Amino acid sequence: MSTLLEKHIVELLRERNDKAISLLYEHYGDTLLGVANKVVRDEELAQDVLQESFVKIWKKSDSYDASKAKLFTWLFRITRNTAIDKLRSVNTKSDKEIQIDVSDVYNLGVNSTRPEFMDVRENLEKIETKYQIVLDALFFQGMTQQEASDELDIPLGTIKSRLKIGLRELKKIYGPTLLLVLSINLIP
């Protein structure tokens, strides 16, 4: 159930009244800044995320539907997604700034980091079968999570859980290197 304050803010947003942003900042700003900071782990970047989030909230105010989500949930999602996008953007930018030709780090060939050239398949057999099946479908057969759910007749939520647990089990075998290899080569 929406509070009177939430209803008032939503009404002001729909009217494109500047007071809506002031009220949002006053009542939700600190919490949303905390959400952004938790994702980007940088106070200055989190401030940028908060500002961008408020701009998106202002622009998307017509899309808010109180029957689908509470105001805070909607604000939280916009802020969290903006933070994730900002983090990806910053990481992509820093990746592009690395100059391979002047790097003194040993440059592994592409084939050496592909799972077919590692012993991932062999070590997959060391984890429970239910995790093996999901990881095989997703990584070696190239299925999406939804396709694996349909093909294996397993609920999508279970696919996601088994993926997470299966990767955690493989991480025990390989350490953090496995996740790096999988994220480079397999995870879209």
TrEMBL record:
Record's keyword terms, sorted: DNA-binding, Sigma factor, Transcription, Transcription regulation
Any GO BP: DNA-templated transcription initiation
InterPro entries according to UniProt: RNA_pol_sigma-70-like, RNA_pol_sigma-70_dom, RNA_pol_sigma70_ECF_CS, RNA_pol_sigma70_r2, RNA_pol_sigma70_r4, RNA_pol_sigma_r2, RNA_pol_sigma_r3/r4-like, WH-like_DNA-bd_sf
Keyword Iron carried by entry: no
GO molecular-function terms, A-Z: DNA binding; sigma factor activity
Pfam families reported for this sequence: Sigma70_r2, Sigma70_r4
Coiled-coil annotated residue ranges, if any: none
Domain of life the protein comes from: Bacteria
Membrane-crossing segments per the record: none
Iron among keywords: no
SUPFAM superfamilies, A to Z: Sigma2 domain of RNA polymerase sigma factors, Sigma3 and sigma4 domains of RNA polymerase sigma factors
Family stated for the protein in its record: Belongs to the sigma-70 factor family. ECF subfamily.
Protein name, as recorded: RNA polymerase sigma factor
